[in-house]
Amino acid sequence: MYFVETLALEGLGNRSYLAGGRTAAVAVDPPRDIDQVLAAATRRGVRITHVVETHIHNDYVTGGLQLARLTGARYLVPAGANVSFSRVPVADGDTAELEEGVAVRAVATPGHTPHHTSYVLEDGGVPVAAFTGGSLLIGTVGRPDLVEPRLTEELARAQHASAHRLAELPDEVKVLPTHGFGSFCSSSQAEGESTTIGREKTGNDALTKDVDTFVADMLAGLDAVPAYYTHMGPANAEGPGPVDLTAPRRADAAEIAARLAAGEWVVDLRNRVAFAEGHVAGAFNFELEGQLATYLAWLIPWGKPVTLLAETPEQITAAQRELVRVGIDRPAAAATGTPAEWVENPEALRSFRRSDFATLAKEIGRGAETVVLDVRRDSERAGARIRGSVHIPIHELHGRLGEIPEGTVWVHCAGGMRAGIAASMLDAMGREVVAVDDSFDKAGEEGLVENG
User: Fold this and answer.
1) Contact assessment for residue 192 and residue 255, using Cβ atoms and an 8 Å cutoff
2) What is the chain's mean pLDDT, rounded?
């Protein structure tokens, strides 16, 4: 008998796995905060005997090395990966027995990276699940452009071949990828929470299109790469150290003001509705319940000190856990409570309006001078856009604020979260801003949209 337990990392759009039998288990692509992996093993009463990496990750810092050191597990890393630490190099066909009758077998699946390796879980010699990392995902594959631009087409062709190799497994084998649940490591976003080899044979482009068509379509659809990815691969190759999740030092109103004056980032983790109603002037809004790690790590100048503001200590703790996964290890300081407690006088508080596309349509209809700022990605805007809107993707906004025309700025995205971030940035520089907190579908219903 075998088991597979999924550990979801919602903010990053990734999954890690713990799998094994009655007494022993393997951890697959573990996150940096390994306490949850250890807790899962304790609940099941199993010992982690092996830790495996499908590849050197570009989108998060792994906890694999520390987990292996702490548990004494064998640390399996693809042989082709250039790393600075001791590990068990894994080649195609290598098998690691977890306990009698339960094993994992390495399958070379280059494409997402040149050294990418998947692992097939076998129960009594029968394949039951495939941990596919950034190879075969749900309805798509991992993107091939994160290693070296000159290798992108070659790796895209390798992805096609690797998908077909995995498709040789029995149809009932579960496909358990690391990426594809919102991660930018996925070449396209697919719907669904689970899949099998048989299902992918009928719905995955890598298995339904010829290689030339597949490669051309994939390369045409590749989206922006988060800036912080540049730092993840080297950190993982060097061997990440343990994390420190102890509470950061408490900042009072005077320190918050001083840090803002010094050009540091003060990040308000509250929801965008509360932030718009009242916040510390100069603070940026990255919602804890949004994709905090992805967007904060993408936008912040790397290494810039960050101070966190939240309603409760528990929210600070949750944010710390999210941020260590992308290498933002220690907040400079933190404060909890309400905005009134974070300033020395009420004049240091600001607010801005929130609205919807129906109201924006009325403003435009009555001839009001409005600046409409679209902060969606290029691929989103290519499908449809608001007539006359200015386009600056959210990840480029901080460096291009001076390009936004004078006047009240109505900023929108696809659903409201990114518009909230952008509105906070505009507000911090003193601009009059309205955050459009609405679904972009409503813009079409109001007659504001033209095709891209």
Assistant:
1) no
2) 96
Strands lying side by side in the sheet with 14-20: 3-9, 14-20, 24-28, 47-52, 74-78, 88-90
Q: How confident is the model at residue 74 (pLDDT cuts 50, 70, 90)?
A: very high
Determine how β-strand 306-310 pairs with β-strand 353-355.
Answer: unpaired
Distances from the Cα of 239 to the Cα of 71, 299, 338, angstroms: 16, 25, 39
Q: Which amino acid is residue 321, in one-letter code?
A: R
Distance between CA atoms of 186 and 178, rounded to whole angstroms? 10
Flag whether the pTM goes above 0.85: yes
Residue 265: its H or E element: strand 265-268
d(CA 439, CA 412): 9
**Virtual torsion, Cα 291, 273, 307, 318, nearest 10 deg:** -50
The pLDDT tens digits of the residues spanning 303-340 come to 999 999 999 999 999 999 999 999 999 999 999 999 99
Phi, psi of 279 (to 5 degrees): -155, 165
Q: Is 204 helix (H, G, I), strand (E, B) or coil?
A: coil
Q: What is the pLDDT of residues 5-62, one digit of tens each?
A: 999 988 888 999 999 999 999 999 999 999 999 999 999 999 999 999 999 999 999 9
Give me the torsion for CA of 112, 67, 324, 175, rounded to 10°. 40
Q: What are phi and psi of 227, to 5 degrees?
A: -60, -35
In this structure, are residues 243 and 67 in contact, taking their beta carbons and an 8 Å threshold? no
Please tell me whether residue 371 adopts helix, strand or coil conformation.
strand
Phi-psi region of 195 (alpha: psi -120 to 50; beta: other; left: phi over 0): beta
Q: How far apart are CA 85 and CA 51, in angstroms?
A: 14
Tell me the C-alpha distance between 192 and 140, whole Å: 11
Cα dist from 30 to 56, 344, 414, whole Å: 12, 43, 31
* Distance, CA of 280 to CA of 276 (rounded, Å): 10
- Span between the terminal Cα atoms of the chain, in Å: 53
Where do we find the tokens 């009594």?
124
SS3 content of the chain, % helix, strand, coil (to 5): 35, 25, 40
For the record, the structure tokens of 213 come out as 């068509």
Cα torsion angle, 423, 428, 429, 432, sign: positive
The stretch 230-254 carries a mean pLDDT of 95
CA distance 309 to 321: 15
Q: Report the length, in residues, of the chain.
A: 452
